[in-house]
Amino acid sequence: MAKYIFVTGGVTSSLGKGIIAASLAKLLQARGLRVTIQKFDPYINVDPGTLNPYEHGECYVTEDGAETDLDLGHYERFLNIFTTQANNVTTGRIYQTVINKERAGAFLGKTVQVVPHITDEIKHRMLLLGQDDKYDIVLTEIGGTVGDIESLPFIEAVRQLQWELPDEDVMVVHLTLIPYLKAAKELKTKPTQHSVKMLSETGVHPDILVCRTEEPLSEELKRKIALFCNVKQEAVIEAMDASTIYEVPLHMLREKLDLICLRKLNITQFNEPNLDKWKAFLDKLKYPKSKVTIGLIGKYIELQDAYKSILESFIHAGAMNEVKVQVVNVHSEFITDENVQEKLQNFDGLLVAPGFGLRGIEGKIIAVKYAREHGLPFFGICLGMQMAVIEFGRNVLGLTGAHSVEMEPNTPHPVINMMEEQKKINMMGGTMRLGAYPCEIDQNSLAHRIYGETYILERHRHRYEFNNAYLDQYVNAGMLTSGKNPETGLVEIIELPNHPFFIGVQYHPELKSTVERPAPLFVSFIHAAKKFNESKSSVKSTAKDALI
Ligand code: GLN
Fold first, then answer.
1. How many Å lie between the centroid of ligand 1 and the Cα of residue 14?
2. Which residues, listed in sequence order, are joined to residue 466 by a DSSP beta bridge?
3. Which of 35, 63, 76, 175 has the fewest CB atoms found within 10 Å of its own CB?
4. 8 A C-beta contact, residue 13 and residue 394
5. Who's near 527: CB < 8 A, 6+ residues apart?
């Protein structure tokens, strides 16, 4: 029988609940326990797949093809496990299930209500992953902030579970903020007191308070919080701002968050935490030997969370290469033939980002051309790969007006076309080509050298594909289509062998990069950027020598 830890948030959003939850899960896993982690989101969308990245950041896709909240990305990166459809539940999905049951007559004439029908469905989903003895602990992060109208049914479900399950099988960790008032030079506990009070009014009492703070909490302050919030003093955990999210598990270890949970849950069998790989990664991350600068060409650049997994993959790949990866966002909407040189000349590599729709497309194509012609390491992901195909079509093959039918349905050269199976679909949610599909890699290719394998599984999220009617033209002109889906022939990887590093992939390698298993493509791309940077500096120093 699994035990359940719920993580709630108070005072304000953006306190990093996902990171705290993932850090706690990591520590329990490092102590030898079988842990999984899930997120319950209070919004009415059935899943985040239809949300614009400006709303909640990137949409993370799991191996089994679920479109989920970006916190699942943190869970996978921290725990090195695959999450599934079951690990992300929204209010929309709960209601959809209950309403479908009602339509099927499953409630036998009863009035269908929030309590018990909605809360029963929530509880069913909260307990689901713990039921077949695969896990010792199921951690559930409740999205939103305590006090929001929409998270009430989730909190009520937690209350009922606290009441139904034995005391030692369920606990609640509440994340709050202790703001520091500069003028008063003081940390303030009142917002936390209010937040715990509000939570208690719903009948849920937290066992642990994790307090986000910019300044250390003195024992005296911890005592005050403990007294007013009715928790043990040792259960008031200080969560100071960290220089990187990957530092947080070690902070939580120091504060004994994991041990306090284990004690509350009466778990006595556990090991000393094995965090060797984690610490080795952190060491490399904190003490890089050099730096590379990567231009991230995208259109959602105002919001860092829109490209979360890409940015984290750069961190993993940077540590592997012992370099600091500085990512500079470049808005593709503002790249023109005239300013491209000035905008891109200082980079050691370009990543052209995934995306949808027309806005910013031409700038991406101009950026690809610059990288191709200047031997600048290039990495295109999904839409980025499609832009590389269009650029090559227009500028190398001379296919004037070549385009993707996504942006230009009447293009004379639809080099990127809608996938056959997508043509019959008219609903938006969950209907793209989603999740892991196989890709077979040519032996004689950069991709093969990078992966060291001929058969890989990578995750997808797209409706359009390389149009194989143009395949021969591309291949004859020197583009290598080095990876294909073995059943359908869908082009998954393109590369230019006469370029130092030019690769585009239809899938999203960033979704499988973890601390312990960085994505090979990112690692090689950063390696190529490092070489590019070194060659630039050696050209510079030879020029300087010549002057002397
Ligand atoms: N819009 C493109 C497609 O649907 C690319 C999608 C993406 O970049 N994730 O095929």
1. 28
2. 416
3. 63
4. no
5. 321
Q: Ligand 1 mean position to 377 CA, how many Å? A: 22
Block means of pLDDT (10 residues each) for the chain, length 548 residues? Answer: 95 90 98 97 88 85 94 96 94 97 94 96 97 95 93 97 97 97 93 96 96 96 96 96 95 97 97 96 96 94 88 97 97 95 96 92 96 97 98 97 96 95 84 95 97 97 96 97 96 97 98 97 98 85 60
**Interstrand relation of 35-41 and 137-142 (parallel, antiparallel or unpaired):** parallel
Return d(Cα 122, Cα 303) in angstroms, integer. 31
CA distance 501 to 536: 15
Looking at residue 74, its pLDDT comes to: 96
- Model-level pTM? 0.94
Going from the C-alpha of 536 to that of each of 309, 340, 378, the distances in angstroms are 29, 19, 16
The verdict on the CB of residue 464 being under 6 Å from ligand 1 is yes
Q: If we measure between CA atoms, which residue out of 376, 404, 378, 380 comes closest to residue 390?
A: 404
Please indicate whether residue 364, judged by its CB atom, sits closer than 6 Å to ligand 1: no
Q: Name the 3-class secondary structure at 542.
A: helix
Find out whether the beta carbon of 197 lies less than 6 Å from any atom of ligand 1.
no
Instruction: State both tokens at 102.
Output: 């009602």
Which tokens go with 121? 């469905």
Task: Just list the catalytic residues.
Answer: 382, 508, 510
Q: Which two tokens stand for residue 480?
A: 């290598």
* Residue given tokens 């614009």 in the structure block: 52
For residue 116, say if its preceding peptide bond is cis, omega within 30 degrees of 0: yes
